Fold this protein.
Amino acid sequence: ILNVEQSPQSLHVQEGDSTNFTCSFPSSNFYALHWYRWETAKSPEALFVMTLNGDEKKKGRISATLNTKEGYSYLYIKGSQPEDSATYLCAFLRAGNMLTFGGGTRLMVKP
Amino acid sequence: NAGVTQTPKFRVLKTGQSMTLLCAQDMNHEYMYWYRQDPGMGLRLIHYSVGEGTTAKGEVPDGYNVSRLKKQNFLLGLESAAPSQTSVYFCASTLLSSYNEQFFGPGTRLTVL
């Protein structure tokens, strides 16, 4: 069983704070890493798919970096807003077309 | 486009009953997936399909069967439901491969008594 670990499990920040969280995954046999945003009572929505070591992706105030050699990815949110409150999932793509998801980081942004 | 839809949204079963969950997508995606989501466990892959007429086992396939007779539909069957199958079930699809982002349906909440 592949372990995909996310930390912290939950995070409370004030509006305007910048924050980041971590996804750790196996450093061998890397294919791709996905990040998803999952709002309560909705479905997960894709943020990024990252495939190359050193990759950096950005969408608005959210960005992500990837280090495949050491097996981690960081997700950053700059100037958090209440609408950023959600669970952020990472998922490791392994051989056989299967994504293994981490447990998620639940972010709550207080106005 | 409706995207990915799931039927039904909610269902309560008694132990031993059977049912089928339907996932439909109108994006002409090749790959489709069934996940279950349990508290503290994250999303776990049950079965998936890489094209019409093909299916494969995921991480937690026991107690479930699937079929992909048409490209746009992916069915998940429970032949004899057990309380351990109480969960929220999500269907997802992706265009050509698992390198592409997955599009998720709204989920089906299943309770087995």
